[in-house]
UniProtKB/TrEMBL annotation:
S-adenosyl-L-methionine in keyword set: no
Record keywords: Membrane, Transmembrane, Transmembrane helix
Annotated protein name in UniProt: Integral membrane protein
Coiled coil: none
Keyword Transmembrane helix (UniProt): yes
Leader sequence residues: none
Membrane-traversing stretches: 15-34, 55-74, 80-106, 118-141, 153-170, 177-196
Length: 256
């Protein structure tokens, strides 16, 4: 394990990236635990306020992200300063993306249905960074044997093909399939072959004059969402907490 870590992480200069990913995931997990305790009224934690203003944790997150980013640029890829900057950046990124939905909607939607976008952003970011560390980006490793060069060349070629399939899947409106398809070739291939989701770039360009394809696309999307919406919501609730129920709206045009 130590030899693999040195050859694939330390020697190529990926240790700061590993530290950033670990601090990112830990920060998100700790933040969600603390916010869920505040929501439940448990523990010694509470919302941070200054002069009656609620200070969201995205604010210190932005400060830490900027400080860690500039520190990483100034320190390079090696040394204690690089590792420290990576940790600071990871902590800041974890705080920022935990409130990604707030930035997107410019509203405090943390515990609402729209707040689920924060969990999705964190999961996708962690998956992408993990991809760089998992050996699928094996650049910067020195003194490789011919067999190792051949193996890594095969990996790089495979990733390149998977990446093309993933781009097709992304154009078909399948973001999660595109991300995880880079790691698992079958996922990328299936996502690239199957029908595009309604409203995606692919559907708008390729299904404009194909009404049967548009109808099949809508039907497939409906069946897929009906089948997987429940498990996906349960997983997101387990990771980020169950959102508050949406307020009931009065029927009719004069509900105000």
């Amino acid at each position: 394990m130590g030899h693999w870590l040195y050859r694939n992480i330390v020697e190529p200069g990926k240790l700061p990236l590993l530290l950033a990913l670990m601090s990112f995931v830990v920060t998100f997990a700790v933040t969600r635990v603390v916010t869920r305790m505040i929501r439940a009224g448990r523990g010694p934690f509470g919302n941070v306020r200054a002069g009656g203003l609620h200070i969201h944790h995205v604010v210190p997150g932005v400060v830490l992200t900027v400080a860690g980013g500039f520190g990483a640029v100034a320190s390079g890829r090696e040394g204690f300063a690089a590792g420290l900057s990576a940790v600071v950046f990871g902590v800041g990124a974890g705080l920022v993306l935990d409130e990604f939905a707030l930035i997107l909607h410019l509203d405090d939607v943390y515990w609402s249905e729209e707040g689920r976008k924060s969990v999705e952003a964190v999961v996708l970011t962690a998956a992408l960074v993990g991809l760089l560390l998992s050996g699928f980006a094996p650049f910067g490793v020195n003194d490789l044997s011919q067999d190792e060069i051949a193996d890594r060349g095969t990996v790089i070629a495979t990733v390149a093909v998977n990446f093309l399939f993933s781009l097709v899947a992304l154009s078909k409106g399948k973001a999660r399939t595109a991300v995880f398809g880079v790691i698992v070739p079958v996922i990328a291939l299936v996502g690239a072959i199957r029908l595009a989701r309604p409203g995606s770039f692919w559907a708008k360009r390729c299904y404009r004059h194909r009404p049967r394809a548009r109808a099949r696309s809508r039907l497939r999307a409906y069946r897929h969402d009906r089948r997987w919406a429940g498990p996906r919501r349960a997983l997101e609730d387990w990771i980020g907490g169950k959102p508050d129920p949406s307020p009931a709206r009065l029927p009719g045009p004069n509900r105000h």
